[in-house]
Design goal:
This protein has 126 residues and is mainly α. Helix content is 60%, strand content 0%. The protein contains 4 helices and no strands.
Length: 126
């Protein structure tokens, strides 16, 4: 099982424009962060067993954690439009990470392929 920490409190505080020294919301942010980490791990666990997490994929998952925690925090503060925007971003980032983890050599080829039916002509009899 994957047990990763994608949530970084200071990055979330920066996104939400909360002062770094302000500790009033630390407990709720940490709670949301733990829930988002578990969700992300559950979503990517089936796909991550064969491939390593690259630094760019790790950055995507950290961005997803920021968006997920921000969505929960904004919803708690009854800022529903902003929360929905963060939730949509979170969903898009998770979907793109899963899509990247599912890729294999066939699906990431840059060369277009064309499939044509194999057709033969009858031999002309002499």
């Amino acid at each position: 099982m994957v047990d990763s920490s994608w949530y970084v409190k200071n990055d979330v505080k920066e996104e939400l424009e909360i002062a770094t020294g302000d500790s009033a919301d630390n407990a709720i942010l940490d709670s949301y962060g733990a829930r988002i980490d578990r969700y992300i791990d559950n979503e990517i666990a089936p796909h991550i067993t064969t491939l390593p997490v690259t630094s760019s994929l790790s950055a995507v998952l950290k961005d997803a954690a920021i968006a997920g925690v921000a969505a929960k925090y904004r919803r708690k503060n009854k800022e529903f439009d902003t929360a929905n925007t963060y939730h949509e971003e979170f969903t898009k980032l998770i979907d793109s990470a899963i899509k990247r983890l599912r890729r294999d050599n066939e699906t990431q080829s840059q060369r277009p392929t064309s499939t044509r039916p194999y057709a033969t002509e009858p031999l002309a009899s002499d």
